[in-house]
Amino acid sequence: xxxxxxxxxxxxxxxxxxxxxxxxxxxxxxxxxxxxxxxxxxxxxxxxxxxxxxxxxxxxxxxxxxxxxxxxxxxxxxxxxxxxxxxxxxxxxxxxxxxxxxxxxxxxxxxxxxxxxxxxxxxxxxxxxxxxxxxxxxxxxxxxxxxxxxxxxxxxxxxxxxxxxxxxxxxxxxxxxxxxxxxxxxxxxxxxxxxxxxxxxxxxxxxxxxxxxxxxxxxxxxxxxxxxxxxxxxxxxxxxxxxxxxxxxxxxxxxxxxxxxxxxxxxxxxxxxxxxxxxxxxxxxxxxxxxxxxxxxxxxxxxxxxxxxxxxxxxxxxxxxxxxxxxxxxxxxxxxxxxxxxxxxxxxxxxxxxxxxxxxxxxxxxxxxxxxxxxxxxxxxxxxxxxxxxxxxxxxxxxxxxxxxxxxxxxxxxxxxxxxxxxxxxxxxxxxxxxxxxxxxxxxxxxxxxxxxxxxxxxxxxxxxxx
Length: 467
Hints:
467 residues, mainly beta, Porin, 14-stranded antiparallel beta barrel, two-stranded antiparallel ribbon, 4 helices, 21 strands, 6% helix, 51% strand
């Protein structure tokens, strides 16, 4: 069995280098800027949004947007999930033993900053507006992790908000108070290649070669905007359609090991494929009404098409093995292809409501709530343990407006917010038998069962300068 262990070593090294996954983006999950964060991300009909290139590019052209505007924001969100202890984490379906343990809860906090610039370079040309939004994680440029395919896994929280994000937007106003816009959401695909050869003889070196390429992908999105008047509109409406973006991760591995002295070399080759990240088709519809001069109310509904979602698990495809100077049956190695359990996916509607209350001429109080449903139609009582409990998003924030900022005769604003996302507790009881349907009793990964749930706590700051 020495040669099996020798071959498994480069496999783990390669998977560690290639297992990269992230789902969706920060703008969709938490929003850009504290105005969005405090109002449950009800930004699609916000005429004064500081990150309009992403939230709704159509509003880049509205007359209330200054000639030039800069914005910066900081966000931090920390997931804290219900501990899952004393469940089966290894069984004879996946290895050669049965083992109970605690599930590792190593989800990273989201800590990042976003920058925005929006301006109107040619006022005379239908109020042409342009904008750019860029998000950068602070702790690292990008963190990606597929998680494990069978142990309990909060599938949309592992690496979802730990990658850079770039959005480009433009808009025009063909008819007074009615605008149209378009944007580009940047993604990428990763192709990796690894070649490994291990020698067990002390006088012969082992070696490894690894290469990868990152190719950009673009997904367009389109926006519509309407305001009831040029100055102090009491009603605005917006709509955005974001086309899906699925980026793949393809891993090619060729490995060999000389484990019988000079007699033979064992070769092991495979392709592996995963979804690097997946942003679903998304439709956002919203309105803002101002019934009183000091009160604004926003309502929004977001549709997400999750039925085409692919889990980010890296799956081995078409593995082969062979030995030099002998037939493959003499190697003693038989590698099976990977398998990802089928997921009971559903499309979702997320209702949101937000409000802004002008406490004084310069101080604004903001509140927001959203109910985010699960992308799964059933609890994972069978072979899989992918988790996504529904959650309540509770948010609050304050904003302060400066007429003069640091001695400059230009207006600016400072905003802060706090967010509390409460995940609904789900009780999962695993069905009898193993993942292949064999045996009886508590045999599945995750058996006998556990509670899923938790919370995500955080908040942020943002600053906007109007020139």
